[in-house]
Amino acid sequence: MPLDEDAVAALYREHGPLVRRIALRATGDAQIAEDLVQEVVLRVWRQAPQTDNLRGYVAQATRNLLVDRYRAAGRRPAEAGELDPAGAAAAGAVDEVDRALDGILVEAALARLSREHLAVIRLLHYRRLTVAEAATALGIPAGTVKSRAFYALRQLRVVLDEMGVSR
């Protein structure tokens, strides 16, 4: 199949930043991250998945390629700039990739909340304030804090389901 440069460029623009963030967080190496972006974009283009959730598919493809790289690095001597094979063989390497991916997908999901809902989530879940403390900090009634938290979490579930994140 001949390379459709426009389609590849569109995939790169739309999904490259997500892949780059995942790879950078997992490897800490900008060159490996950029190589992985190109590899994932080409793989997704070649496979042309029939899915309504392309973002989730791209995230899963990124995870799979990172895991493959960690495993491969454990089976041969390391080359300059590659992953550490001693650490790569550990099961913790795969867990680190999963944690990085989950963190990035949660950040993306949070970015889709309204300012009001995000403010409540930050106070209740990140700063660990009580409902009364959050109500005081925001200058709104406690009941409003509770309802915003409820609707924000419901929206996060919907967004994460769309992204293919399992609970």
Give a topology summary.
Blueprint: H1 5-27, H2 30-47, H3 54-75, H4 85-88, H5 91-110, H6 115-126, H7 131-138, H8 142-163
Helix pairs in contact: 1-2, 1-3, 1-5, 2-3, 3-5, 5-8, 6-8, 7-8
Unreliable runs: 85-90
What is the tally of beta strands? 0
Specify the biggest β-sheet. Answer: none
SSE ordering: HHHHHHHH
Per DSSP, the total helix count is: 8
Q: Which value, in Å, is the CA radius of gyration?
A: 19 Å
- The helix content is over 70%
Mean of all residue-level pLDDT scores: 80
Distance between the termini: 37 Å
| Shape, principal axes of CA atoms | elongated
Return the structural class.
mainly alpha
Strand content: under 5%
General description of the model:
- This protein has about 170 residues and is mainly α.
- About 75% of the residues lie in helices and about 0% in strands.
- The chain has helices spanning about 5-25, 30-45, 55-75, 85-90, 90-110, 115-125, 130-140, 140-165.
- Residues about 85-90 have low confidence and may be disordered.
Features:
single chain; 167 residues; mainly alpha; 0% strand; elongated
Question: Could you provide a short overview of the structure?
Answer:
This protein is mainly alpha-helical. The protein has helices at 5-27, 30-47, 54-75, 85-88, 91-110, 115-126, 131-138, 142-163.
